Amino acid sequence: MVFPLMGSFFWNSRRLSLLMIFLAIGILLWMGIVSLHFLGSFLQESDRVEHSWMVLTSIDRLFSELQDAETGERGYLITRNPSFLSPYQSAEKEVRGHLHDLEHLVSDRPSQEMRAMELGKLIDKRLFLLGNGVALGKSGAFPHRDALLMVMLRGKEVMDQIRQLTQSMKSSEYRRLRRRSLLFYRTRKKVLPLVGGGLAASVLMIVLSSLFLSREIDRRVRAEHKARQYAEEVRDLYDYAPCGYHSVDHEGTFVRINETELSWLGYKREEVEGRKRIFDLLSPEDLPLYQNAFQGMLRGEPVRDLRLRFLRKDGTVLPALLNASVIRDAFGRFLSTRGVLLDMTQKLIDEEKILDLNRTLSERNMQLEVTNGELEGFSYSVSHDLRAPLRSIDGFSRILQEDYAGKLDAEGERVIGVIRNNTRKMSNLIDDLLAFSRLGKKAFSWSLVDMEALIREDILPGILSGGGKGAGVDVTLSPLPRAWGDSTLLAQVWTNLLSNAVKFSEKREKPSVRVEGKVEMGEVVYTVRDNGVGFDMQYYDKLFKVFQRLHAQAEFPGTGVGLAIVQRVIARHGGRVWAESQLNEGAAFHFSLPARDGPPV
Questions:
Q1: Considering only the top CATH level, what class is 244-343?
Q2: CATH number belonging to the domain at 444-594, selected among 3.30.1130.10, 3.30.565.10, 3.30.300.130, 1.20.1250.20
Q3: Strands (E), 13-163
Q4: For the segment 552-585, what is each residue's pLDDT rounded down to a tens digit?
């Protein structure tokens, strides 16, 4: 059983033959790189070893020349023979040259460079003493024995320091030589097995890959077959796509066209490809338009959403939308176009339907505007005409109450009070109705409104007057951003919102109202919060409608028009109004205005 399994393993592994060849080549390249690296390291280390030996040689020559100078100086002092000055003078010059070479050689090592600088100072000192000795010898008479001894002792002291310092530099270089030799030996010990193992592995992989090459050839044959199938699928997708595809050469002759576009035009492939030019299939009215676009394509410009009418083989018209780009060769020369055609027949039908609907909608809007105008006029007329009888009822009831005071019983007094109270309510309702009807007629006077100043100076004094019920309400006014709008209309909005907030919270133990504002997402948003009775959110859809109330008239008097006015004013400003609340936990009314840099044009 082992051999069949192994055979199956190697049989399947032949698909990896190409990978093994690459691995073998990679190993060989790696071996070459390692060898080159090792060779480079070897050459580098050789240069470093040679450099160390040059340092050692330079130190020895320097010390030797210094000794020659010392010998010449001593010989001259003892014998007074000028011939001894020749080696002294020659050595003095050579010493400085060797010292310069040594400083250059050790400039890559800070420690050695410091020693070389110290050595230079000692050599300067020694040469100075040698010069003093020679000068003593040239002074005429034989130098005194004590003076001569002093010069020699000081010279010996400096020379011992030089000898010690040069020995230290040589010891450092010898240690460096030993380290480099050890590193070279270790590197060679590591590299040789790696190179040998890599060579064996590459040979093994090449042998295996040659055995498995036949399997790889079979796989390639199958892949080519699959690629042909894929190409056929792509061709089928090209030919039967839901849009038309075509390519034309620099003369406009069709070089390729798919079956979809052929079916739209009613032609066969052999009738179009290489025979017809795209100019021949265009309606005469659209021909100049396409010729201009085609010249642009020859210059490399694409075509975007070009509406054209093509002529079918049977003479009917095909409305289409063309998008096209240019195919170029490796040298940038024009080869052909790549066009995509969309059938616009159904789209044109839909557009015609939309136009009909728009015309109908426009007519309905005009009718609605006329109806709204009539309703506004009617409401204004009715409200105006109701004032005269209301004034009469209120006037006569007041005369009756004043002239017949004491003659009426309690019930009569109560009935007259009810009549006058309801006439006042009716008058307030008419005032609100008139205000609501005038909102659609009032012309806008745009300005940058300082909301904080408007509320503080114009709105709150009237709401929180000393004798009014709102006097005990704590109103907190936060800093408010400015906004563009009609200051008169916006004053009506703030009056309605703040009056409601005060009215619905004044019965609390500690009534409070807070006004806030912020700028976010291109809007200026304002909020009026109170801790009043709130409302049930399930009745939210009635909140901003005319004459809709969520609380009893006896408990919280009002006409039910205030919030409708707020919504209409904010809508005319292009903003929106909304609210949130929980029953007996207060309410928050928000409205937003567009954040503008100036009045709308």
A1: alpha beta
A2: 3.30.565.10
A3: none
A4: 454 555 556 778 888 888 998 999 999 998 888 8
